[in-house]
């Protein structure tokens, strides 16, 4: 690629994971990528290593880069590992312990050893001030400014880096929080402050507290990292705008990400969901299951009718990975997915009754699985894949990580083989089978909770480890079709390049539909539109914008609401029946019936604004079939049949559309490898994607 063409359309996407940092460079229809180990102590170093390598190897001048899009697990890892800022919580007098009382119920009713995640601010770091606002926004007790001024010395003495201000009912009247912020900011200009009326202006005290406290906790860390990254990019001559991927599948500016970093907690997985959405559209698939397995975790997302499921609730740092309520709740816009500790680096061990268990802890990149030869002593899933001969030693991570098979064998033998008196090969197969079952079980539970099934879907597999495990996952879920897209090993980063610039705002504003106030709702949505547009226009000054409105509605007396689409127009009095009809339709879809003669009420309203992005058109299907010659053969253990099979090895770059490969086979590329089990055949479609079809369906063209 020429470096002197002055092309400013070149884009870079960067995804920092727990094990690898992925860099994708795009110039028109041309993409190239780099995968490097994540540098946890200074993440920007790994980023720049990947960026410089990708640009240099492809003869691209840094000054020609026009846009950088970045997603990172930095905020998530800081919450999980408790490595954020020293943060004070300032709340209404009498409510100091709300963040610890949480929902006042047990997420595991009969576990006497049940543990909740500890609050990010321990009790001695929680302070209260006299003030009180009623649920309707009326001031019952004025904020005592002097109490805040006396608090300054304590905050300074304790050397707090951040503060979260969360007063009762501030979602309806933010005046006290804003005054408190201004007082503390004047006295302590270096203190990073988050207020709940900005971060989470919604009803439900504990959720709002938890979200605001988490935002404050990671804010100094993220602000410092983004400053370092911008400086590092500038030093290399990359002066392009830097945008950040958010959990809802959109991108936003550095300024917004710095103020509300909590919106970035699922930014990497969200990019993967955007990629899967585009793959579904290209192939005309209305029901897919996105399967993203990297070095640390596996993520599973359901996509129907070319729309991923969206949510406003999410849990971070669950004490028990499958149990809702065991983590820290966040009320942020997020693509709804299930995430478990099942990645290539997930640690393998035996439990107290000698069952193989996987994760949720990971070896990460430092030291990594035993086969990385970086000092890691723990066996990991990647070690099992090496023992099973699924991974091409010389192609792993583009040749940047030199794997040592003998270390993988020793680690698996020590962790599983010797204690269970089985061969190393069978032990590795057991590891693979357990991790696959864990992921399949998570997918089943997620589908059931959503009122859906997995069997009639196409599995879209991406991430460094997913194509290795996709065939067996499909067996367990009753899935007959799999797609492995181009660039699958860096799939989330590729997804970043397809994401719109967007922002979502929410407000709690109670309204009974029997007492519908169209004027108040019109004013509310005008305010939401203005706030969202201010953010979006920073990254897209002249772009056409798409607006989506939703309402959170319930029957009176219910504890939770369902999401209902709201028309994007000026409301009139007759829209009371419009909202009622929409609510009853959604309620019936979820629960099979409505509840007659009950009042209906709306609690919160959201407005999402994004740049308009069109999904790709469905591509044609090749009818020509040819059978490529293998570049090699390999003895690979196939877990499904429980024995070693002679698998053909194919180089993905050499495969043309229409190529048909009968399993068992392995299709290798720099960032991953696709295992075609004995039950599947693989075909390259006209888009260059690997499509795996169950063998009994191949001849029928299904």
Task: Provide a brief overview of the structure.
With 702 residues, this protein is an alpha+beta fold.
Describe the structure in your own words:
This protein has 702 residues and is of the alpha+beta class. The protein folds into 4 domains: 80-223, Dna Topoisomerase Vi A Subunit, Chain: A, domain 2, CATH 3.40.1360; 267-493, Nucleotidyltransferase, domain 5 (2-Layer Sandwich), CATH 3.30.420; 502-611, no CATH class; 635-698, no CATH class. It is 31% helix and 27% strand. Helix 3 (98-101) links the parallel strand 5 and strand 6. Helix 10 crosses helix 11 (405-420), helix 10 (381-387) packs across helix 12 (424-449) and helix 11 (405-420) crosses helix 12. It is globular, with a radius of gyration of 26 Å. The protein starts with 9 loop residues before the first strand and ends with a helix.
- Give the CATH topology of the largest domain: Nucleotidyltransferase, domain 5
- Helical content band: 25-40%
Q: What's the N-to-C terminus distance?
A: 39 Å
* Total DSSP helices: 17
pLDDT averaged over residues: 89
Strand content bin: 25-35%
The assigned CATH architecture of the largest domain is 2-Layer Sandwich
Structural class: alpha+beta
Oligomer: single chain
CATH level 1 name of the largest domain: Alpha Beta
Largest sheet: 9 strands, mixed
Total number of strands: 35
The overall number of domains is 4
Flag low-confidence runs: 1-7
Cα shape: globular
SSE order and pairing:
Elements: E1 10-16, E2 20-27, E3 30-37, H1 43-57, E4 65-72, H2 74-81, E5 87-92, H3 98-101, E6 126-129, E7 132-133, E8 139-141, H4 145-157, E9 162-166, H5 175-187, E10 192-195, H6 196-199, H7 205-235, E11 242-245, E12 251-253, H8 254-259, H9 267-282, E13 287-293, E14 298-304, E15 307-308, E16 310-311, E17 314-316, E18 328-330, E19 334-335, E20 338-340, E21 346-350, E22 356-362, H10 381-387, H11 405-420, H12 424-449, E23 458-462, H13 466-477, E24 481-484, H14 491-496, E25 502-512, H15 518-539, E26 545-555, E27 562-566, H16 575-591, E28 600-611, E29 632-638, E30 643-651, E31 660-662, E32 665-668, E33 673-676, E34 680-684, E35 690-694, H17 695-698
Parallel strand pairs: 1-4, 4-11, 5-6, 5-9, 9-10, 13-23, 23-24, 30-32
Antiparallel strand pairs: 1-2, 2-3, 7-8, 11-12, 13-14, 14-15, 14-20, 16-19, 17-18, 21-22, 24-35, 25-28, 26-27, 26-28, 29-30, 31-34, 32-33, 34-35
Helix pairs in contact: 1-7, 2-7, 4-5, 10-11, 10-12, 11-12, 12-13
